[in-house]
Amino acid sequence: MNAPVRASTCASPFDLQADESWRAWRARRLACGTPGPADLTVELNDPARPTAAELEALCERIRQHNLAFYRCPSGAAALDRERFAALCGALGFTRPDPHECADGDGISALQVCDDGRRAGYIPYSNRPLSWHCDGYYNPPDRRIRAMLLHCVSDAPSGGENLFLDPELLYIRLRDENPEWITALCHPRALTIPANVQDGRTLRPAATGPVFSVDPASGRLHMRYTARTRSIEWRDDPTTRAAAGRIREILEAEGPGVLRHRLAPGEGVVCNNVLHARTGFTYDSFAGSRQRLLLRARFARRVPGT
Fold first, then answer.
1. Domains of the chain by residue range
2. Which of 30, 62, 226, 254 is most buried when burial is the number of CB atoms within 10 A of its CB?
Protein backbone atom coordinates (compact mmCIF):
# COMPACT_ATOMS: atom_id res chain seq x y z
CA MET A 1 0.00 0.00 0.00
CA ASN A 2 1.53 3.31 -1.05
CA ALA A 3 -0.55 5.83 0.91
CA PRO A 4 -2.51 6.02 4.17
CA VAL A 5 -5.83 4.19 4.02
CA ARG A 6 -8.90 6.42 3.82
CA ALA A 7 -10.91 6.72 7.01
CA SER A 8 -14.06 5.64 5.19
CA THR A 9 -12.64 2.17 4.53
CA CYS A 10 -10.39 1.52 7.52
CA ALA A 11 -9.73 3.36 10.77
CA SER A 12 -6.00 2.95 10.42
CA PRO A 13 -4.02 5.19 12.78
CA PHE A 14 -1.79 6.00 9.80
CA ASP A 15 -4.69 7.59 7.90
CA LEU A 16 -4.26 11.34 8.24
CA GLN A 17 -8.06 11.67 8.38
CA ALA A 18 -8.52 9.14 11.22
CA ASP A 19 -7.69 11.49 14.06
CA GLU A 20 -9.24 9.41 16.85
CA SER A 21 -7.43 6.21 15.81
CA TRP A 22 -4.18 8.15 15.42
CA ARG A 23 -4.35 9.72 18.86
CA ALA A 24 -5.13 6.39 20.52
CA TRP A 25 -2.29 4.61 18.72
CA ARG A 26 0.14 7.47 19.42
CA ALA A 27 -0.71 7.41 23.13
CA ARG A 28 -0.21 3.65 23.35
CA ARG A 29 3.13 3.80 21.56
CA LEU A 30 4.51 6.67 23.61
CA ALA A 31 3.34 4.99 26.82
CA CYS A 32 5.88 2.23 26.07
CA GLY A 33 8.65 4.74 26.75
CA THR A 34 12.18 4.68 25.36
CA PRO A 35 14.16 2.10 27.35
CA GLY A 36 17.87 1.60 26.94
CA PRO A 37 19.64 -1.47 25.54
CA ALA A 38 19.92 -3.10 28.97
CA ASP A 39 16.13 -2.99 29.41
CA LEU A 40 15.65 -4.58 26.01
CA THR A 41 18.15 -7.40 26.57
CA VAL A 42 17.14 -11.03 27.10
CA GLU A 43 19.57 -13.66 28.37
CA LEU A 44 19.52 -16.81 26.20
CA ASN A 45 20.95 -19.82 27.98
CA ASP A 46 21.30 -21.78 24.72
CA PRO A 47 20.71 -19.42 21.77
CA ALA A 48 20.34 -22.30 19.32
CA ARG A 49 17.51 -23.70 21.47
CA PRO A 50 15.84 -20.81 23.30
CA THR A 51 13.11 -21.70 25.78
CA ALA A 52 9.49 -20.66 25.36
CA ALA A 53 9.94 -18.12 28.15
CA GLU A 54 13.02 -16.63 26.47
CA LEU A 55 11.22 -16.37 23.13
CA GLU A 56 8.24 -14.69 24.75
CA ALA A 57 10.54 -12.22 26.51
CA LEU A 58 12.07 -11.29 23.14
CA CYS A 59 8.65 -10.98 21.49
CA GLU A 60 7.28 -8.86 24.32
CA ARG A 61 10.03 -6.30 23.81
CA ILE A 62 9.66 -6.39 20.03
CA ARG A 63 5.89 -5.93 20.23
CA GLN A 64 6.45 -2.70 22.16
CA HIS A 65 9.64 -1.35 20.57
CA ASN A 66 10.14 -3.35 17.35
CA LEU A 67 13.52 -4.61 18.56
CA ALA A 68 15.19 -6.60 21.31
CA PHE A 69 18.76 -7.51 22.20
CA TYR A 70 19.94 -10.89 23.42
CA ARG A 71 23.05 -12.07 25.21
CA CYS A 72 24.57 -15.52 25.31
CA PRO A 73 26.23 -16.55 28.59
CA SER A 74 30.01 -16.52 28.71
CA GLY A 75 31.34 -20.00 28.07
CA ALA A 76 28.33 -20.95 25.93
CA ALA A 77 28.94 -22.73 22.66
CA ALA A 78 29.82 -20.24 19.93
CA LEU A 79 26.87 -19.29 17.75
CA ASP A 80 28.26 -20.37 14.38
CA ARG A 81 26.27 -20.21 11.14
CA GLU A 82 24.40 -23.44 11.84
CA ARG A 83 23.42 -22.43 15.37
CA PHE A 84 22.54 -18.93 14.18
CA ALA A 85 20.20 -20.48 11.62
CA ALA A 86 18.74 -22.59 14.43
CA LEU A 87 17.98 -19.43 16.43
CA CYS A 88 16.22 -17.95 13.38
CA GLY A 89 14.19 -21.14 13.07
CA ALA A 90 13.27 -21.10 16.76
CA LEU A 91 11.88 -17.60 16.28
CA GLY A 92 9.65 -18.95 13.51
CA PHE A 93 11.65 -17.91 10.46
CA THR A 94 12.57 -20.13 7.54
CA ARG A 95 15.11 -19.34 4.84
CA PRO A 96 16.51 -15.77 4.88
CA ASP A 97 15.90 -13.42 2.00
CA PRO A 98 18.59 -14.02 -0.66
CA HIS A 99 20.63 -11.22 -2.19
CA GLU A 100 23.82 -10.90 -4.20
CA CYS A 101 26.14 -10.59 -1.18
CA ALA A 102 24.62 -13.36 0.94
CA ASP A 103 26.09 -16.86 1.09
CA GLY A 104 24.29 -19.97 -0.08
CA ASP A 105 22.31 -20.29 3.14
CA GLY A 106 21.05 -16.70 2.87
CA ILE A 107 23.17 -15.57 5.83
CA SER A 108 25.63 -12.72 5.34
CA ALA A 109 29.01 -12.53 7.06
CA LEU A 110 29.52 -8.82 7.72
CA GLN A 111 33.28 -8.37 7.77
CA VAL A 112 35.87 -6.41 5.83
CA CYS A 113 36.23 -7.85 2.32
CA ASP A 114 38.94 -6.48 0.05
CA ASP A 115 38.07 -8.59 -2.98
CA GLY A 116 35.25 -10.66 -4.46
CA ARG A 117 31.61 -9.70 -4.99
CA ARG A 118 31.36 -7.87 -1.65
CA ALA A 119 34.34 -5.56 -2.17
CA GLY A 120 33.30 -1.95 -2.51
CA TYR A 121 30.07 -2.27 -0.53
CA ILE A 122 30.20 -0.26 2.72
CA PRO A 123 28.68 -3.01 4.95
CA TYR A 124 31.75 -5.11 4.07
CA SER A 125 34.22 -2.37 4.96
CA ASN A 126 35.23 -0.68 8.19
CA ARG A 127 33.77 2.67 7.13
CA PRO A 128 30.76 4.20 8.91
CA LEU A 129 27.44 2.87 7.67
CA SER A 130 24.76 5.57 7.46
CA TRP A 131 21.19 5.26 8.70
CA HIS A 132 18.97 2.89 6.73
CA CYS A 133 16.40 0.13 6.85
CA ASP A 134 17.57 -3.11 5.28
CA GLY A 135 16.36 -3.89 1.77
CA TYR A 136 15.51 -0.29 0.89
CA TYR A 137 16.55 -1.15 -2.69
CA ASN A 138 14.15 -4.13 -2.90
CA PRO A 139 10.84 -3.94 -4.83
CA PRO A 140 7.61 -3.90 -2.76
CA ASP A 141 7.03 -7.64 -3.23
CA ARG A 142 10.42 -8.32 -1.61
CA ARG A 143 10.27 -5.87 1.27
CA ILE A 144 12.36 -6.79 4.31
CA ARG A 145 10.30 -6.81 7.48
CA ALA A 146 12.68 -8.40 10.01
CA MET A 147 16.39 -8.80 10.62
CA LEU A 148 18.78 -10.55 13.00
CA LEU A 149 22.35 -9.51 13.75
CA HIS A 150 24.75 -11.60 15.82
CA CYS A 151 28.23 -10.53 16.91
CA VAL A 152 30.80 -13.31 16.56
CA SER A 153 33.76 -11.01 17.23
CA ASP A 154 34.10 -7.27 17.72
CA ALA A 155 36.72 -4.83 16.48
CA PRO A 156 39.52 -3.61 18.76
CA SER A 157 37.72 -0.24 18.76
CA GLY A 158 34.67 1.31 17.14
CA GLY A 159 31.85 -0.50 15.40
CA GLU A 160 29.00 0.80 17.56
CA ASN A 161 25.49 0.17 16.29
CA LEU A 162 22.67 2.72 16.47
CA PHE A 163 18.97 1.86 16.33
CA LEU A 164 15.69 3.79 16.14
CA ASP A 165 12.16 2.44 15.96
CA PRO A 166 10.57 4.00 12.81
CA GLU A 167 7.32 4.43 14.71
CA LEU A 168 8.98 7.03 16.95
CA LEU A 169 10.33 8.89 13.93
CA TYR A 170 6.90 8.78 12.26
CA ILE A 171 5.27 10.25 15.38
CA ARG A 172 7.76 13.09 15.53
CA LEU A 173 7.41 13.96 11.84
CA ARG A 174 3.62 13.81 11.93
CA ASP A 175 3.50 15.98 15.05
CA GLU A 176 5.73 18.57 13.40
CA ASN A 177 4.14 18.62 9.93
CA PRO A 178 1.52 16.15 8.64
CA GLU A 179 2.27 17.29 5.08
CA TRP A 180 5.67 15.62 5.40
CA ILE A 181 3.90 12.32 6.00
CA THR A 182 1.76 12.80 2.88
CA ALA A 183 4.90 13.45 0.85
CA LEU A 184 6.80 10.50 2.31
CA CYS A 185 3.85 8.17 1.58
CA HIS A 186 3.85 9.12 -2.11
CA PRO A 187 4.48 6.06 -4.32
CA ARG A 188 7.40 7.84 -6.00
CA ALA A 189 8.90 9.47 -2.91
CA LEU A 190 12.22 7.64 -3.07
CA THR A 191 14.04 5.97 -5.96
CA ILE A 192 17.19 3.86 -5.76
CA PRO A 193 18.72 3.70 -9.25
CA ALA A 194 19.67 0.39 -10.80
CA ASN A 195 22.94 -1.24 -9.74
CA VAL A 196 24.84 -1.68 -12.99
CA GLN A 197 28.38 -3.04 -13.07
CA ASP A 198 30.39 -3.73 -16.21
CA GLY A 199 27.27 -3.33 -18.31
CA ARG A 200 25.34 -5.92 -16.29
CA THR A 201 22.29 -4.98 -14.22
CA LEU A 202 22.68 -6.60 -10.82
CA ARG A 203 19.53 -4.96 -9.45
CA PRO A 204 16.87 -2.88 -11.23
CA ALA A 205 15.81 0.56 -10.07
CA ALA A 206 13.42 0.55 -7.11
CA THR A 207 10.86 3.30 -6.54
CA GLY A 208 8.38 3.54 -3.69
CA PRO A 209 7.24 5.36 -0.56
CA VAL A 210 9.26 5.91 2.60
CA PHE A 211 6.32 5.19 4.89
CA SER A 212 3.56 2.74 4.02
CA VAL A 213 1.07 0.50 5.74
CA ASP A 214 2.19 -3.11 5.52
CA PRO A 215 -0.65 -5.03 3.82
CA ALA A 216 0.35 -8.22 5.65
CA SER A 217 0.03 -6.79 9.16
CA GLY A 218 -1.50 -3.32 9.04
CA ARG A 219 1.62 -2.05 10.82
CA LEU A 220 3.82 0.85 9.77
CA HIS A 221 6.62 -0.03 7.34
CA MET A 222 9.59 2.21 6.57
CA ARG A 223 11.93 2.17 3.57
CA TYR A 224 14.84 4.57 3.93
CA THR A 225 18.50 5.27 3.42
CA ALA A 226 20.50 8.35 4.40
CA ARG A 227 22.96 7.81 1.57
CA THR A 228 23.49 10.86 -0.63
CA ARG A 229 24.84 9.13 -3.74
CA SER A 230 22.83 6.87 -6.06
CA ILE A 231 19.54 8.05 -4.59
CA GLU A 232 16.75 10.17 -6.04
CA TRP A 233 14.15 11.96 -3.93
CA ARG A 234 10.94 13.05 -5.63
CA ASP A 235 11.44 16.56 -7.02
CA ASP A 236 8.97 18.25 -4.72
CA PRO A 237 9.65 20.95 -2.08
CA THR A 238 7.74 19.14 0.68
CA THR A 239 9.49 15.84 -0.04
CA ARG A 240 12.89 17.49 0.03
CA ALA A 241 12.03 19.27 3.29
CA ALA A 242 10.82 16.01 4.86
CA ALA A 243 13.98 14.18 3.77
CA GLY A 244 16.10 16.95 5.24
CA ARG A 245 14.22 16.83 8.53
CA ILE A 246 14.73 13.06 8.79
CA ARG A 247 18.45 13.56 8.31
CA GLU A 248 18.54 16.26 11.01
CA ILE A 249 16.71 14.07 13.52
CA LEU A 250 18.93 11.06 12.91
CA GLU A 251 22.17 13.04 13.02
CA ALA A 252 21.13 14.62 16.33
CA GLU A 253 20.63 11.17 17.90
CA GLY A 254 17.65 12.46 19.84
CA PRO A 255 15.11 10.62 22.03
CA GLY A 256 14.61 6.99 21.10
CA VAL A 257 18.00 6.47 19.44
CA LEU A 258 19.83 3.52 21.02
CA ARG A 259 23.62 3.31 20.74
CA HIS A 260 25.12 -0.05 21.64
CA ARG A 261 28.39 -1.75 20.79
CA LEU A 262 27.59 -5.43 20.39
CA ALA A 263 29.98 -7.69 22.24
CA PRO A 264 30.77 -11.26 21.14
CA GLY A 265 27.76 -13.42 21.92
CA GLU A 266 25.28 -10.55 21.71
CA GLY A 267 22.72 -9.93 19.01
CA VAL A 268 19.65 -8.05 17.84
CA VAL A 269 16.24 -9.26 16.69
CA CYS A 270 14.07 -6.57 15.13
CA ASN A 271 11.29 -5.66 12.74
CA ASN A 272 13.78 -3.95 10.42
CA VAL A 273 14.20 -0.78 12.44
CA LEU A 274 16.38 2.11 11.35
CA HIS A 275 20.02 1.38 12.12
CA ALA A 276 23.53 2.67 11.50
CA ARG A 277 27.12 1.75 12.40
CA THR A 278 30.17 3.76 13.30
CA GLY A 279 33.52 3.09 11.68
CA PHE A 280 35.94 0.68 13.34
CA THR A 281 39.60 -0.28 13.40
CA TYR A 282 40.80 -2.93 10.99
CA ASP A 283 44.17 -4.60 10.48
CA SER A 284 44.72 -6.72 7.38
CA PHE A 285 47.18 -8.92 9.27
CA ALA A 286 45.74 -12.45 9.17
CA GLY A 287 46.22 -13.10 12.88
CA SER A 288 44.71 -9.86 14.12
CA ARG A 289 41.32 -9.48 15.76
CA GLN A 290 38.62 -8.68 13.20
CA ARG A 291 34.98 -7.68 13.51
CA LEU A 292 32.48 -10.30 12.28
CA LEU A 293 28.70 -10.15 12.49
CA LEU A 294 26.21 -12.62 11.05
CA ARG A 295 23.06 -11.19 9.49
CA ALA A 296 19.81 -12.74 8.30
CA ARG A 297 16.91 -10.82 6.75
CA PHE A 298 13.33 -11.97 6.33
CA ALA A 299 10.21 -11.02 4.37
CA ARG A 300 7.92 -11.38 7.40
CA ARG A 301 7.83 -9.60 10.72
CA VAL A 302 9.07 -11.41 13.81
CA PRO A 303 6.32 -14.01 14.40
CA GLY A 304 4.16 -13.11 17.36
CA THR A 305 4.81 -9.37 17.04
1. 42-298
2. 62
**What does the radius of gyration of the chain's CA atoms come to, in whole angstroms?**
19
Report the predicted TM-score, pTM, of the whole model to 2 decimal places.
Answer: 0.92
Q: What is the mean pLDDT of the chain?
A: 89
Share of the chain above pLDDT 90, in %: 70
Residue 302 DSSP symbol: P
Beta strands in 31-140 (DSSP E): 41-43, 67-71, 108-110, 129-132
Q: Around Cβ 74, how many Cβ atoms within 10 Å?
A: 8
Q: What are phi and psi of 281, to 5 degrees?
A: -75, 145
Structurally, at CATH architecture level, domain 42-298 sits in 4-Layer Sandwich (3.60)
4 has pLDDT over 50: no
53-84 residue pLDDT tens: 999 999 999 999 999 999 998 755 568 889 99
The neighbour count for residue 170, using CB atoms within 10 Å, is 21
What is the 3-state composition of the chain as percent helix, strand, coil, each rounded to the nearest 5? 25, 25, 50
Q: pLDDT tens, 221-230?
A: 999 999 888 8
Q: Which residues contact 62 (CB under 8 A, 6 or more apart)?
A: 68, 269, 270, 271, 302, 305
Give whole-number Cα distances, 15 to 134, 176, 179, 204, in Å: 25, 16, 12, 31
Contacts of 101 (CB under 8 A, 6+ apart): 108, 117, 118, 121, 123, 124
Nearest partner of 174 among 15, 7, 64, judged by Cα: 15
Contact 302, 269 (CB under 8 A): yes
